[in-house]
Design a protein that fits this description.
alpha+beta, three-stranded antiparallel beta sheet, 41% helix, 18% strand
């Protein structure tokens, strides 16, 4: 509907200037241009902010012309072989060719468990990164927790290296950013009903247009402009501008809370949400686990069902030995190089 409104606004402004309504015409023109500029500025700033958040570059050893060269990860192209180092942010979708690599994919999938990556087999099989080839693939946007050289069965040393296969929007991370920057259009019942309203208004406008042409038969040019001017009274040409300004104010309020809106039209959709369910509280809040306390139970008799709870203990050192052992071992946390703890507590 936005394309129709642009033509409609242009026609109405033309009529204002024809009837010498210069003050109204100039004010409406300024408001329309201001709303268009605000909409463009808000969208461009949000897209640039998302782009800067998604971009990352660092130094990397890339095999070029038979020699290892220190280049930026931005220079990686499909077919390049590069060294994988601990703490590295994977810049592309790559196939593991050697070494022992542990990848942290929590930033991409939300799962805190570390994933061990194995070198791809030297066979004629087809590599599918979304299928069985996941264990041989490093995904863009993830981080390398551990990268070690290993000694193979024939005594040779296999360094942690990867083969770049996809970059940019061809990666899973790139497709995710692309969906944020260019969201799919969503149809609302409001838009569907708006077509019916416009249909009724158009029929009424046609009736007004015919009546104006009949009453001003002596002046064809004036009758046409008067008829179009009468039609313009059905819908205010400032309606889109008012919507844009309201959405811009809402987006600015969200920005103060570190919530960025790329598409202003989605503000209307967010306003209609009454309940939002999340399935991953840990991923959305913070990493780690805080110990609050323990409530131990003991058997007060021979009957195994006769259990009673002790008082609540908030100090870990004051808990019984069995409880402390259970709390210390019931996790999937692993320590990698540098003392970094990763995994699911």
């Amino acid at each position: 509907m936005s394309q129709f409104f642009y033509l409609y606004q242009f026609m109405v402004m033309w009529l204002y200037y024809y009837w010498n309504y210069y003050i109204i015409g100039v004010i409406d023109t300024c408001i329309i241009l201001l709303s268009a500029i605000v909409k463009v500025v808000v969208r461009v700033r949000s897209e640039l902010r998302v782009k800067h958040m998604a971009e990352h570059s660092e130094a990397c050893s890339i095999l070029r012309d038979g020699e290892w060269q220190e280049l930026s990860t931005i220079d990686l192209v499909p077919g390049d072989v590069f060294r994988v180092a601990a703490g590295m942010h994977v810049p592309c979708d790559a196939v593991v060719l050697g070494g022992n690599i542990v990848s942290d994919e929590s930033s991409l999938t939300g799962e805190p468990l570390p994933i061990r990556k194995f070198p791809i087999h030297d066979d004629d099989g087809i590599h599918d990164k979304s299928g069985a080839g996941k264990i041989n693939t490093l995904f863009a946007g993830t981080s390398v927790s551990q990268a070690q050289a290993v000694t193979t069965s024939d005594g040779s040393v296999s360094e942690p290296i990867g083969l770049c296969v996809h970059t940019g929007t061809q990666t899973d991370k790139g497709q995710l950013v692309q969906e944020i920057l260019f969201p799919q259009p969503i149809s609302f019942i409001f838009n569907e009903q708006l077509r019916l309203v416009f249909g009724i208004l158009i029929l009424y406008a046609i009736l007004v247009f015919i009546l104006a042409m009949v009453f001003y038969q002596t002046q064809p040019s004036a009758s046409w402009f008067y008829a179009m001017f009468s039609c313009s009274q059905l819908i205010s040409p400032l309606l889109p501008a008012a919507l844009v300004m309201g959405q811009s104010v809402a987006a600015n309020r969200l920005k103060k809370k570190q919530i960025y809106c790329v598409n202003l039209d989605r503000v209307i959709m967010a306003g209609k949400v009454q309940m939002f369910c999340f399935d991953k509280t840990g991923t959305l809040t913070k990493e780690g686990l805080e110990f609050y306390g323990g409530l131990c139970a003991h058997n007060s008799g021979d009957d195994t069902k006769a259990l009673s709870f002790d008082s609540f203990v908030d100090s870990f050192s004051a808990l019984p030995d069995l409880m402390r052992t259970a709390a210390s071992t019931c996790h999937a946390v692993a320590e990698v190089e540098g003392g970094l703890m990763i995994g699911n507590p």
